[in-house]
Amino acid sequence: MSETQFDDPRAVTTRRNLLGIGGATALATLAGVALRTQPLEAASVQPYINVTDAPFNALGNHDPFGTPGFDNTSAIQNALNALPLTGGALYFPPGNYRCTGQLSASGKSVAILGSGRKISQITWDTGTGGFSFSFTTNRQALTVRSISLLTRAAGGGNALYASWPSSPATMSSADVTDIYIAGENAASHYWTRGIQLNNATTARIDHWAIHGKDADPSHLMIAAIDLVGLCTPVYISNGDAYSMAYGIRAVGSSEGVHISHCEIVEVTNGIWLEAVGMGRPGTAVSDCHVNAGSIGIMLSNHGDASLTGNLIYRLTAGSFVGIYNENSPFTRMQGNKIDDTVTPASPDYQTNGIIISNSRGCVVANNVVKHCWTPVWLASGSNHTVLGNRMPQPPTWTSWLLVYNNGCTGVIDAYNQSA
């Protein structure tokens, strides 16, 4: 008999899968709850609960344009409580599951699985919604896949929060893939934060979209992704952030933060990486599109970093810096385009392309910095290389410097052009 692959996690396992887990049955029972086994990935088999099964009986019947659906808060919380301490998963079949309170779990690995974003959806009514996970050891992991998290509140809290112990002896794991986080009505509803991870190591966030309130110049949503504490390494890719104060922010003891192929638009600050202590290594930001009102990319205390191939441009009139490098020695800023698209007829002295402060040995090469009054500002430090950049300005502007050196020593400044 030929084997059949089932995309639905509720499908039975094949005979080969059963033999591969040592002849264990495909159904187990924990406190009267049916737990089936089905691979979440090719190499792992975990028990899971379908939240619509008895005794939980969740209903995905919420209609955002009509009558609010059944309140699933207790049903889903009971399903989380029923997962074994060894870990397991909740499966949300297609539907929109309304909740009125935060859902939480502690001390066990958890997976939240849907059938696809905007197919499996959870909608919270109140300002204390979302998922909150507290892990007691760094061996416990979080997986979230193929689901939408929506709020009907103005400041709905954290859509997805997870915390691990600090100073881990082992690496924790957070894997968030194919997720959509937004307000149910984008004109009035928004989360406070999209994803917040505390002390997450070996974390991955991929194929994500997090949206704040539409047409919101105040940027009431704080951040799409917030990394707090010791977060290393972290991989964030293929995402979209819209309308918030910070697109991606990492504060604390973060290092080894890798961000690529993300579009971050209509924000106050695009990518803000601020570590405690000087020169934490290994950070990279590449091929991102950032539309910011204040700072495109902020790099503080991240040494040996790489910022390459990014498009950064100003959102509104006012003080603007494309890339701000502070206390981050030996950083490579190459192949970026920084553009002040809000170019006034006369010079705007508040616009800066790249600022390097209190760093040494940085390389600024092959960038295009357009319509910024100070394309490259070497505020302090030493031994920088500024080479082969193009810095075109409006023809009405006169008497600007391509590279403003505020007393840095050992600087190589060559082959930079104003056309």
Would you mind describing this structure in some detail?
Helix content is 4%, strand content 47%. It is built from two helices and 33 strands. The strands form two sheets. The chain has a 31-stranded mixed sheet that branches. Strands 26-30 form a two-stranded parallel sheet. Strand 2 (33-41) and strand 3 form a beta hairpin. The longest helix is centred in the N-terminal third of the chain and has 10 residues, at 73-82.
Q: What's the short version?
A:
By secondary structure, this protein is mainly β.
List keywords for this structure.
single chain; 419 residues; mainly beta; 31-stranded mixed beta sheet; elongated; disordered N terminus
Low-pLDDT parts are: 1-32, 34-45
Number of helices: 2
Principal-axis shape equals elongated
- Alpha-beta classification: mainly beta
- Assembly of the depicted chains: single chain
Q: Tell me about the biggest sheet?
A: 31 strands, mixed
